[in-house]
Amino acid sequence: MSSREHPLFTIKNNCQDCYKCVRQCPVKAIKIEENSAQIVPELCVACGKCYKICPVRAKQDRDDVTRAKNMLAMGEKVYVSLAPSWIAEFDNVTKEQLLTAIEKLGFAGVSETALGAEEVSAHVAEFLSDKKTGVFLSTACPAFVEYIRKYRPELTKNLTPVMSPVLAHSKIMRAKLGEDIKIVFVGPCIAKKFEADRNADLLNLSISFRDLRRWLRESGINYHNIEPKNNIDFVCKRAEEGRYYPIEGGMIETIKHYNKTKDVYMMQLTGLENIQRELSDIDGTNPEKAVFIECLACEGGCVNGPCTRSHKSGFEKRARVIKDVKLGENTGNREYSYDIDCSYDNAPVEQKKYDEDQIKRVLALLGKHTIEDEINCNACGYDNCRNFARAILEGKAEIDMCVSHIKHQAQRKANALLKCIPSPIVIVNSNLSIIEYNEQFLQAFWNDEEHGDIYDSNNLIGANLRDFVSFTNLFSASLELGEDVKRENVHHDERVFDVMVFNIEQKQVVGGVITDVTKVEIKREKIAEKAKEVIEKNLATVQQIACTLGEHMAETEVLLRSIAKDYSVGESDRPNITIRNKRDSK
Fold it and tell me: Residue 331: which residues within 8 A CB-CB, separation 6 or more?
């Protein structure tokens, strides 16, 4: 299956290389390729976590709206199977308004997926009725089922042998409305696309609530203001307890009404990370009674699915769903009427094995040579350094994803630069506390008598710059202005410095390059004095040959005085000057 055929894919140019999806993906189905986080279809369970958390919308779900439009354009009789979580998703809209808006798109009608949920509950209740022991897992969530098939294939035998609610609903609709109808599921789930792909004879397509909104908007249909059709309602019949399904524990709420399951212990797990943890050693357990576990990939249930937009609290969503449920006389006594039995095959992901030497070689590249170096910070997205090393060996991860490695590498480069630069360098924060410095700074400004009782000469990190230099006003000015500051001939303890203060993090961190120009200034003064001596000597000579030189005497005096003045003002890089009189030159 290509990346675009898979329910989820990455828009490469949008990816900002933040690794957030790697950190959040519960099955690590992300491969870093050319600085872009690509989804690996054979590893993905389509839970949609990456889609939900991507800050730049680089992760996208496959758009099947065009296919749905084509079915309608061909005159097909197309019905919508609407997920019961719609009640928590669409605010300030009535059922009649939403159904009218959907029918205006060209659909023949809308039916509740919750009808299939009720059929599933009846089947599961019957299945559990004679179970005295064992652990049984729900199959209502396709992302969870995909996880079991790929990553816990040994637990496939624990899956209850019934279809999901949407497939059960598709069977009901075809039995009531005709086998030739087309069915499009609309809901909060991306993994439903797996079911549509694999069961096209029952479910033709799956689109999301987001897709439906966009389709209505592009068609100029405003479901908030639309005038509902007279007597419009869900086709087939209205659902009852099946409307509990989109909240955690909802399936259990429907099953527990059956007396035949009163001896079965029931629990729910939501969120794949929680499911992974709680089911980690379930295969070795042997409970004294039958245990049924409702498992949903999204925390809190389908009302928090990846394609939901509502920002209401989990409690408010749950309350809206519960309020919408209207129990009937069949609740707990419902006889199942359709054959929705099914079995689930394994599709185990190949787990490559790497020996200790291979892992250690990768860890060494990361600068991790001992157990203490393996800090397991999870910043790379993997729960420990060794799993990250395995991901590198598999070609799924890159070394630069290791934050500590990048930090140490940057620190080594910075230290090398600090060592190589002959001038004193110091980096300080907004409080003028020293963050970094080089040995030249220590040699230039450390004084045992003055500093020895306060600081450790081996580590000045955190020391206050004010205790070492008298020109901290330049650093403060740079921090306050957020601009670089340069001053020449700054005097400190009978020495002279050129100081350049530059911003690293504007108004937060600045660095200073401090160049000792004391010797240069002394040299300039000596050169100026020598020049003055030459002037005096040559003036005497000039006076003696004044008649010969005439007007050139005045020019020579001006030139010599100019030279002396230039050296006095401290200009650098003077050429060597040898002054000769004409007699010498001859």
Answer: 240, 241, 254, 257
Contact 25, 68 (CB under 8 A): no
DSSP 4: T
Residue 115 CB neighbour total at 10 angstroms: 26
- Residue 581 region by backbone torsions, left for phi larger than 0, else alpha for psi between -120 and 50, else beta: beta
Residue 467 sits at the vertex; the CA angle it makes with 461 and 473, to the nearest 5 degrees, is 100
Question: pLDDT tens for residues 114-172?
Answer: 999 999 999 999 999 999 999 999 999 999 999 999 999 999 999 999 999 999 999 99
Helix axes 518-544, 552-568, angle to 10 degrees: 170
Q: What are phi and psi of 236, to 5 degrees?
A: 70, -90
d(CA 146, CA 348): 10
DSSP 498: E
Alpha-carbon span 457 to 532, nearest angstrom? 45
Q: Residue 401 in 3-state DSSP?
A: helix
pTM of the model: 0.74
pLDDT in tens, 345-381: 999 998 888 999 999 999 999 889 999 889 988 888 8
Pairing relation of β-strands 495-505 and 509-516?
antiparallel
Encoded tokens for 453: 């009782």
Contact in structure between 268 and 137 (CB atoms under 8 Å): no
Range 521-530 burial, b when 16+ CB lie within 10 A, else e:
beebeebbee
- The Cα–Cα gap between 50 and 152 comes to 21
Measured distance CA(336)–CA(509) in Å, rounded? 70
- Cβ burial of 502 (10 Å; 0-12, 13-18, 19+) is middle
